[in-house]
TrEMBL record:
The keyword Lipid metabolism does not apply. Keywords: Glycosidase, Hydrolase. It comes from Mesobacillus jeotgali. The lineage of its organism: Bacteria, Bacillati, Bacillota, Bacilli, Bacillales. The gene is ascB. Its EC number is 3.2.1.86. This is 6-phospho-beta-glucosidase. GO terms for molecular function: 6-phospho-beta-glucosidase activity.
């Protein structure tokens, strides 16, 4: 047993996203969204960055895995497995396109609303608290094609209608909400977050930050609505957080790392927690010729729509060097930087840094002084089924043990940490690669990159390990 003290009521659980688990991509009148339409991460970017979106949507363009893991039909079985592990919380997203198939309709799609009624009721049947992401990289494709994604101010109105609809519908079933998944990721993954990408790197700043402004206003509107519609609810922002290390003690590299941390890690969080643009953005806007179009009440809305907690994903740290690094980060490191020689990497080249999680928790809590919630953290790895049918994912247990220890240390450092929903509590489609072989789950799903498989669920060794962690509130790691 260890000495870490996790708070009573700590929200142990797991995290998922609609587009990566549900399937049923066109069932129940659901519309198409950016995330599930095109094969793999790279293919999706290439096609969507061609001017004028000159592609047709053909059946063979869908993920070979467009049924994902078929949570749409198997949610009762999966939720029973989460309950067997003792989950206190389950992070899920609501697919915007199940509620408004094209995104710009006036009336919602009742069949979509009823699906999430059933899922939320099933979670409560097992005493599991839903933690709902309003938009998890799942923008309706029609809003991308017809309006240009978040560049278009009209999308704020469409999002407000969507958020009000689900907040009202599920006000008695969901206490914990968050607005946009990894809202800051658009700087490295524009399609997922903002629903568009710009061909030439140097042209991207103005449209990206105007789109960010629209999304941040939309987030604040949803936060205000949540507080009005659901008294006692807690709604957070959600940031992809990666602490930035300077390459060495050269002050130029230390300053470069600080500026990278400000724009990537803090810009969106500052607006959503403090309710205003941070002053360091004034210089950034000037240096990148960004003139935001800010409507009359926008700044007041930002001020009123501040969040109750900071949700964030943690996978890795980032090491930055002012001059273009000789050796760039391992290609799997989707947020860039240079290779950190002190860190091992995963099967997909993501650096493994549990101390970085303790650093992240201290930095975020020092800055915001409101509860933190780790809503994504996990190890994507190749898993192997042994002769006897067992899956001995000791590498995943080791990864999670070290990161949970880092959480325990941070709590002793004085951090107010409210929960941990590890990423990919069940195997699913990888967001960045469209692959199945990149497995995160405590539960194996028999599904493969070529689309084959029985969809059978198999408990891995980590399933039983995590069950004990939750049962002992983190004492038994
Ligand atoms: C985060 C996304 C998740 C999930 C995770 C793992 O950025 O919020 O949806 O996909 O990354 O990434 P991947 O699935 O590419 O391994």
């Amino acid at each position: 047993m260890n000495t870490y003290k996790f708070p009573e009521g700590f929200l142990w659980g797991g995290a998922t996203a609609a587009n990566q688990i549900e399937g049923g991509f066109n069932e129940g009148n659901k519309g198409l969204n950016v995330a599930v339409v095109l094969p793999g991460g790279k293919a999706r970017y290439d096609i969507l960055t061609k001017p004028g979106f000159d592609f047709e949507i053909k059946p063979d363009q869908y993920y070979p895995n467009h049924e994902a893991i078929d949570f749409y039909h198997r949610y009762k079985e999966d939720i029973a497995l989460f309950a067997e592990m003792g989950f206190k919380a389950f992070r899920m997203s609501i697919a915007w396109t199940r509620i408004f198939p094209n995104g710009d309709e006036i009336e919602p799609n009742e069949e979509g609303l009823q699906f999430y009624d059933r899922v939320l009721d099933e979670l409560h049947k097992h005493g599991i608290e839903p933690v709902v992401t309003i938009s998890h990289y799942e923008m309706p494709l029609h809003l991308v094609m017809e309006y240009g994604g978040w560049r278009n101010r009209k999308v704020v109105t469409f999002f407000e209608r969507y958020a009000n609809t689900i907040l009202t519908r599920y006000k008695d079933k969901v206490k914990y909400w968050m607005t946009f998944n990894e809202i800051n990721s658009a700087l490295v993954m524009p399609i997922n977050g903002l629903g568009f990408s710009i061909e030439k790197e140097e042209d991207r700043y103005q449209p990206t930050f105007q789109a960010y402004h629209h999304q941040l206003v939309a987030s604040a509107i949803a936060v205000k609505a949540c507080h009005e519609i659901i008294p006692g609810s807690e709604i957070g922002c959600m940031i992809l957080f990666a602490p930035v290390y300077p390459f060495d003690s050269n002050p130029d590299n230390v300053l470069h790392a600080l500026k990278e941390e400000q724009i990537f890690n803090y810009f969106c969080g500052d607006v959503q927690v403090r309710g205003e643009y941070p002053s360091f953005m004034n210089r950034y806007f000037k240096e990148h010729n960004i003139q935001l179009e800010i409507e009359e009440n926008d700044l007041e809305v930002l001020k009123e729509g501040t969040v109750d907690y900071v949700g964030f994903s943690y996978y890795m740290s980032r090491t930055e060097k002012k001059e273009k690094a000789a050796e760039d980060a391992s290609e799997g490191n989707i947020i860039g930087g240079v290779r950190n020689p002190f860190l091992e990497v995963s099967d997909w080249g993501w650096e493994i840094d549990p101390v970085g999680l303790r650093i992240s928790l201290n930095k975020l809590y020092d800055r915001y002084q409101i509860p933190l919630f780790i809503v994504e953290n996990g190890l994507g790895a190749y898993d192997k089924i042994e002769e006897d049918g067992s899956i001995n994912d000791d590498y995943r247990i080791g990864y999670l043990q070290e990161h949970i220890k880092a959480m325990g240390e941070a709590i002793e450092d004085g951090v107010d940490l409210m929960g941990y929903t590890s990423w990919g509590c069940i195997d699913m489609v990888s967001m960045s690669t469209g692959e199945f072989s990149k497995r995160y789950g405590y539960i194996y799903v028999d599904k493969h990159d070529d689309g084959s498989g029985t969809l059978e669920r198999i408990k891995k060794k980590s399933f039983f390990w995590y069950k004990d962690v939750i049962k002992t509130n983190g004492k038994k790691l």
